Amino acid sequence: MKCLLLALGLALVCGLQAATVPPAMEDLDIRQVAGMWHSVAMAASDISLLDSETAPLKVYVQELRPTPGDNLEIILENHACIEENIMAQKTEDPAVFTVDYQGERKISVLDTDYTHYMFFCMEVPAPGTENGMMCQYLGALTLVVPRCPLVPLTPSWRDRSWGNRAGHQRASSAA
């Protein structure tokens, strides 16, 4: 039920054509957001920001690492399965950060329970307007199927893998 409400909130907040980000969390403890996360849902005020595989803001958060200076290192994966590290600089508001990612941008953490979900938005210039917004709902990393292949699928790899597996199955069925 929580996921449904958060997904609905994400759709409503980001579906608006407003240029302002909803208020950030008042008492964010940056140390508690450290860890592995995964992108569950994305939305934008202008669909062109996310509508293709090569859309510039179609990125998948992998991990958040607070630094000793209360900045936030964000490890993400882009559309080409290339890992990128972005340093989010703290501001006076503990839930608002600035990043230099395809231009100067502001990220606001709207809500989190520190263990299961995080909801954030990033101000972005949208085509034809001065301001736009891209939001993501992050979930705690549990069992997640990787988006990108971990092993290159070459014929020699497939042959060895299936050959060993088939041999194992024959041996166990003969017993």
UniProtKB/TrEMBL annotation:
Compartments where located: Secreted
Family as reported in the entry's similarity comment: Belongs to the calycin superfamily. Lipocalin family.
Name the record gives this protein: Lipocalin/cytosolic fatty-acid binding domain-containing protein
Keyword Disulfide bond attached: yes
InterPro entries xref list: Blactoglobulin (IPR002447), Calycin (IPR012674), Lipocalin (IPR002345), Lipocalin_CS (IPR022272), Lipocln_cytosolic_FA-bd_dom (IPR000566)
UniProtKB keywords: Disulfide bond, Milk protein, Retinol-binding, Secreted, Signal
PROSITE patterns: LIPOCALIN (PS00213)
Record-annotated Lipocalin/cytosolic fatty-acid binding domain positions: 34-139
Pfam name, any one: Lipocalin
Signal sequence, start to end: 1-18
PANTHER family linked: GLYCODELIN (PTHR11430:SF117), LIPOCALIN (PTHR11430)
Organism per entry: Panthera tigris altaica
A single Gene Ontology CC term: extracellular region
A Gene Ontology molecular function term of the record: retinol binding
Keyword presence, Signal: yes
TM annotation in the entry: none
Chief location category: secreted
Lineage: Eukaryota, Metazoa, Chordata, Craniata, Vertebrata
